[in-house]
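Interim report, section 4.2 (structural modelling).
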Amino acid sequence: MELTLGPLAYHWTPERRADFYARIADEAPVSTVCLGEVICSKRAPFFEREIPRMIERLTRAGKRVVLSSLAEVMLKRERQATAGLMEIDDPEVEINNAAGLLARGGRAHRVGPFLNAYNEATIDWLAGQGATHVCLPGEMPRNAVAAAAQAAAALGVGVEVQVFGRAPLAVSARCYHARAHGRTKDNCRFICEDDPDGMPLTTGDGQPILRVNGIQTQSESYIELSEELPAMAALGVTHARLMPQDVDMVAVAHVFDDVLCARTDPEEGRARLSAICASTSFSNGFWHGEAGYRHISRRANAV
Amino acid sequence: MNAAADFSQAGELVCPAGTPAALRTAVDAGADTVYCGFQDATNARNFPGLNFTLPELEASVAYAHARGARVLLALNTYPPAGKFDLWRAAAANAARLKVDACIVADMGVARHIATEYPGLRLHLSVQAAASSPEAIRYYCQHFGVRRVVLPRILTIPEIHAIKQETPCEIETFIFGNHGLMVEGRCSLTNWLTGESTNMDGVCSPAGKVTYEEDADGGLRSCLGGFTIDRFAPDETAGYPTICKGRYAAPHRPEGYYAFEEPVSLNLARLLPDLMGAGVHAFKIEGRQRSKSYVRKVVGAFRAAVDAIRAGATPDLADLVALTEGQKETQGAFQTKKWR
Amino acid sequence: MTDTSAHRTPRAALPAMLPSAPLRALLQPVLARVVRRVAARHPGMFARIAPYQQADFLIVATELPFALHLRPDPQAPLFRAVPRDPLPAHDARIEAPFMLLLNLVDGETDGDAAFFSRDLVISGNTEAVVSLRNALDDVEGSIAQDTADLFGPPGRLVLDALRRRAAP
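Predicted structure of the assembly:
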């Protein structure tokens, strides 16, 4: 099983992004890096002009680069951006919206987590249309992942599951970052840049619950499935996806790589991740078919 | 094909039915088309005590067809791998019972029906979130989809533009619960409850909902143990839907509706514009609502559509009190500022 | 549309002048007859509440000095008057002015709208309440009218009087 770095969901400053991907290129034990703006088409122009340099840098470091497409495609600029991306043959593209599938027209591509490949029939269909790799929706429980992975293996399609980072829970046409600041999406002035790990929402009881990232809603806690890596590999999952958060992602990737290669046992791996992500709690409920925010401990699970 | 299965007249009213009694009520109140679902995860209103058994659907199709109305079956959830057979069986039953179309979202389900039951008409559910001409054309081209239900995020000029570039009929929501998130891409309920909107067909399932009264007469609505909202004694209440909850953010310590207030969509006043934009069918949300709701809302919209067709100004009944929180909105349809 | 605000101020506290216990004793056989009749005429509704056939629902009409206890067990349906203070143990409680409850049972009023307007209060197991609501909503015709018919002309007279009193 290999590690993938998923696309950056947040609107980081150009300097921060450049530093981040430079460090990933030099130091992170991931084989694949997804680049591109997936959440907000207004942010995309900032990112796009840096991408050729990042591709060059990452490729030089031996990483496979994948360009991820927008999850929401509605406006003219979003339709054009999607169509343009679909003309690229190298690097590979990861498609997150059916508009991209139409433009791709059967040429090879990856399927992103927003495209809703939940089952064998859909994976079979997509594979017949050129899909070589599928990142499953984050809410799928272990049993369904197992069945999907089996079907994908028979088709020669790679299967990826998110194992680290905030769960992507929803997208909308409305920008909630702008709304929080009394602005509209068209007049947002990129206020989302102030929250490099999302804007926290707490309930009326003061309980942290969700994060706002522009038009996206994410979980408050991070998905953390390092201890499941061996089980996932046994099920036929070929890639484990780490989502970039505002923590030392190189260190995170090293922990996952160490657990994957059995250099570190899961408890120690968890302890290291807790130290790296000091202010954030971990969840694994989706994997266990429970409420996503929950954390099911392995011990309780065995009983 | 039965005589009822003629979808050609624009201004079609597509109405909800959660029970056979509601279906008969909708047909009697003037629905052109009624949509409903089986009592399982194959549809997005998999709620307790709701929906149709096979014999109930069979009798309901007969009732509707005898009165010139059509019946659509919602098969609009996403089967998780390993459970596809449930959707396969539902599709077989839909074909056998001669429903007039299936409303689908999942590509695997769409392909299965297009291949196995080529005579069965397919509508693309709002759960597929096809919000561009390209996405819609993809489903039309590959699965023969004849109608798309548009997400509730487009303005009327945008709908008009999509119609120009789309080979199929357009259906839009005109009334009812106004979801904020892109449909078919929302796991908020699963995050708090362990039940999935996409895979299980639930949104804020009643089994995980509690209401707690405060000492001062206020009401706290909770989902999966999380407080979603708190209503003052005189304040109208809402169902604890996560995207309509009140939360605090760093800049909004007082708490605010971070996504949307508990309002309901009501496009009665925009009906003529929507028809002008090329919308073929109007959908009323609310399979989980009572037949009293169905009777009043369907009746009012029937009269409005008939008036527009006759070239008259529709006399719009006051539907506000039926809406959630008793507040209504025209949502994204009126202006881009909504976004 | 039904004007739910009409229910906010009860027009009359019905038999509030009567002591609760004798009144309840008087009502028990009547309620038992009502629920047996509904069960016999609408067997289909029990399938819709299958998981909650053993659940104890308390239905509280704001103006009445007693509450109603319903257990929708198709084998042994239970419907009886119980004291209000304190309420017996239950799975779910549904509280509203009497005429609103009557209209809800008859599908004349939308339960969600009544809940949003705070005229209807529910507590306890929300899923049980939703199941009961959906089961009742699938019943064709008027349960209230059926019940009134059970008692012949005097029954219909009482129902008509109640409806007139609740009319806005």
